[in-house]
UniProtKB/TrEMBL annotation:
It comes from the Bacteria. GO terms for cellular component: membrane. It comes from Enterococcus phoeniculicola ATCC BAA-412. The keyword Metal-binding does not apply. Keywords: Membrane, Transmembrane, Transmembrane helix. This is ABC transporter EcsB. Signal peptide: none annotated.
Length: 404
C-alpha cells in the first residue's frame, strides 16, 4: 500500500505542477518580494521602538504560533471510488497512512521554520531569549504539529463526534499551555513538553486505535482540503475542479437596478451580477480590501503607505481579471447581438469602479495611520493614479493577450 500511495502522490504532484506555473508567475513573485521587503523593514523599525520589558510581546508570539499550527492538514489523497475498491484492503491501510503522515508534515514544517524565524527577533527583544534558542522553539512547534496531525488522523476513523471534539479540545488546551510556558519560562521546557505531548498523542490516537475507518469522512475531509487548495489556485487561473457557489443576496439588488437595461450594458450587467452574487470574486475583493486597510491603519510612513496601498490595488485588480472569462464558454453569450469589444469595455469599467472604491477606502485609512491630511491626500491621489493606470493600460493589454 505504501507503493500505491507513492503512485497516487506522484500523479497528484504532477497535476499540481501544471497550476504552479500560473501561481508563481513573474508579477506575483515581484509583488511578494516587495511586500515581504516592506513588512520586514517596518518590522525592524518596530522592534527598535519596543521596550526591553515588553511583557505582551511573548504572548503575541505564542498566539501567532498557535494560529500557524492550524496550517496544513492530514493528507490522505482519498477519492470517492476508494469507498468501494479499497474497502477490502482496509486492514492494510496502516502502511498507506504512514507514508501519507510523512508527506503531511512537509508543508507545515517548512512554514513553521519561516514563522519561527520571523518572530524570533521579537522574542529576543521582548522575552530576553537568545537567537541560539531558535532550534528549541522550532522542535517544540514541530512536536505540537505532529500531535495535531495525530488528532486529524484520529478523526477519519469510526469514533463518535464527542470523542473527536474531545481530542481537538485536549490538543488545543495542552498546546496553549506549552506555548505560554515556553515563551515565559525556558525554551527547552517547552520543547520537552512538546515532545511529551507528541508521544502521548501517538499512543492515545494511533497506537491504541482499534476501530475501522470512516471512509465517507476520510473522502469528505480530503475533498475539502483539495477545495481549499483549488480556491487559492483559482485566484490566478481557471480551475475546472472547483465549482462556483452562488448566493441570492437580495439586499444587493439595488446595485443591479441602477444599471439601465440597455444593449450597451449587456456584459456589464452580467459581470456585476457575477461579482455581486458569486462567492469567489466578491470574497476575494473584500478580504484584500480589509487586509490592505488594516495594514494602512498601523503605518505611519508616507512612502511605505503609498507603496503598500499601491501593491494591494494591483493585487485586487490582478485577481479580478479572470472574471473576464466567466461567460466565455456559455453558448448563449456567443449569440448576443453585441459587439465583441463591449466585453472588454465592461470588465474595464467594473474593475475600475471596484479599484476606485478600494482607493478611497485606502486613502481614508492612510489618513488615520499617517495623521497628516496633506500626506493622506497625496497618498489618495497616488492610489487614484495607480487605479487609472492599471485599468487603462494593464487591463487593456491583458485582455488583448487573452483574446489572442
Amino acid at each position: 500500500m505504501s507503493e500505491f500511495f507513492q503512485k497516487r502522490l506522484a500523479r497528484h504532484q504532477k497535476h499540481m505542477m501544471r497550476y504552479m506555473r500560473y501561481v508563481f508567475n513573474d508579477h506575483f513573485v515581484l509583488v511578494c518580494l516587495f511586500l515581504f521587503g516592506g513588512v520586514g523593514f517596518y518590522y525592524s523599525n518596530l522592534l527598535k521602538t519596543l521596550p526591553e520589558d515588553f511583557f505582551w510581546g511573548s504572548g503575541i508570539v505564542a498566539f501567532v504560533w498557535l494560529l500557524s499550527l492550524y496550517s496544513g492538514s492530514f493528507v490522505t489523497l482519498a477519492e470517492p471510488a476508494d469507498m468501494v475498491f479499497l474497502l477490502p484492503k482496509e486492514n492494510k491501510m496502516t502502511d498507506y497512512f504512514k507514508r501519507s503522515f510523512t508527506y503531511s508534515c512537509i508543508f507545515p514544517f517548512v512554514l513553521l521554520v519561516l514563522v519561527c524565524g520571523f518572530l524570533m527577533p521579537l522574542l529576543v527583544v521582548a522575552g530576553g531569549f537568545q537567537f541560539s534558542e531558535f532550534i528549541w522553539f522550532l522542535l517544540m512547534l514541530w512536536s505540537l504539529k505532529i500531535s495535531q496531525l495525530h488528532v486529524q488522523r484520529y478523526g477519519i476513523y469510526q469514533v463518535t463526534n464527542a470523542k473527536k471534539k474531545q481530542s481537538q479540545i485536549l490538543w488545543l488546551l495542552t498546546t496553549i499551555v506549552i506555548l505560554l510556558v515556553s515563551v515565559y519560562t525556558f525554551s527547552w521546557v517547552g520543547t520537552g513538553l512538546g515532545l511529551l505531548q507528541a508521544v502521548c498523542f501517538y499512543i492515545l490516537y494511533w497506537k491504541r486505535l482499534s476501530v475501522g475507518l470512516d471512509w465517507e469522512e476520510m473522502v469528505k475531509k480530503e475533498q475539502n482540503r483539495l477545495h481549499r487548495l483549488y480556491q487559492f489556485i483559482n485566484l490566478f487561473t481557471d480551475v475546472p475542479e472547483i465549482t462556483a457557489t452562488v448566493k441570492r443576496r437580495k439586499y444587493l439588488d439595488g446595485l443591479l437596478n441602477k444599471l439601465s437595461i440597455q444593449q450597451k450594458n449587456t456584459y456589464l450587467y452580467l459581470y456585476v451580477r457575477r461579482m455581486v452574487r458569486g462567492s469567489e470574486f466578491s470574497g476575494l475583493y473584500l478580504r484584500l480590501v480589509f487586509i490592505g486597510s488594516l495594514f494602512l491603519y498601523f503605518l505611519n510612513s508616507f512612502w511605505f503607505s503609498v507603496g503598500l496601498g499601491s501593491v494591494f490595488l494591483y493585487l485586487i485588480g490582478f485577481q479580478l481579471i479572470p472574471l473576464y472569462n466567466q461567460f466565455h464558454y456559455m453558448v448563449l453569450t456567443q449569440l448576443y447581438p453585441v459587439p465583441k469589444e463591449q466585453k472588454g469595455r465592461a470588465i474595464q469599467s467594473l474593475i475600475g469602479l471596484l479599484l476606485l472604491v478600494a482607493a478611497v477606502i485606502f486613502g481614508l485609512f492612510a489618513w488615520i495611520g499617517l495623521k497628516n491630511v496633506q500626506q493622506a491626500g497625496m497618498a489618495a491621489g497616488i492610489y487614484l493614479l495607480v487605479t487609472l493606470a492599471f485599468t487603462k493600460l494593464y487591463v487593456s493589454s491583458r485582455i488583448k493577450k487573452m483574446e489572442n
